[in-house]
Amino acid sequence: MAKYYDVHPENPQQRTISNVADMIRSGALIAYPTDSCFALGCRLGNRDGIGRIRSIRNLDERHHFTLVCQNFAQLGQFVHVDKDVFRVIKAATPGSYTFILPATKEVPRQLLHPKKKTVGVRIPDHATTQALLADLGEPLLSSTLLLPDEDEPMTQGWEIKERLDHVVDAVVDSGDCGTEPTTVIDLSGGEPEIVRRGAGDTARFE
């Protein structure tokens, strides 16, 4: 059964956050809130966790996983960012955007797009997520919690606990978050390409 953590949305309890971070370090797969919607997350090198995310969401090898980062300094360790791209991302973060960029060697091969060798990265604007990333000290490997054959992600922590009780290890709940996934922008080819329109405003990329 998954552990259930009720976290204050503005002032996350540090003891609870540390408990969740310890679980992630030990190989746990969690469901957690972000500034767009709930996501599934595990440690970067957690092969079992990656497999479980693929299984829960029924994903193929072409799926872009996302590295959810605390800040720009952390993001820069995992993707190649030139000056123009830096300015674009800096202006849009933290926020509800995922950027697809060429990955560095720090990113495990199984997370990369098989042909493009790219990975998604984002910096969320959410107190609970930021507190968790600060304690963890590394990105969370993540994917939107959108189940197969469903049009919208689940928004209630209790519902996620009920439905995914035996396939995730913990559910972190800090109240409702949105039903709209991040806006996805591909910056790997130089010019911004809008891959998915979501919670983030696309006007600056058009």
UniProtKB/TrEMBL annotation:
Record key words, sorted: Nucleotidyltransferase, Transferase
Pfam families named in the record? Sua5_yciO_yrdC
Determine if Nucleotidyltransferase is one of this entry's keywords: yes
* SUPFAM superfamilies (alphabetical): YrdC/RibB
Which stretches make up the YrdC-like domain? 14-200
Report the EC code(s) recorded for this entry: 2.7.7.87
Can you tell which superkingdom this protein's organism belongs to?
Bacteria
GO MF terms, alphabetically ordered: L-threonylcarbamoyladenylate synthase
Leading EC class: transferase
Q: Which PANTHER family match?
A: DHBP SYNTHASE RIBB-LIKE ALPHA/BETA DOMAIN-CONTAINING PROTEIN, THREONYLCARBAMOYL-AMP SYNTHASE
What is the protein name given in its UniProt record?
Answer: L-threonylcarbamoyladenylate synthase
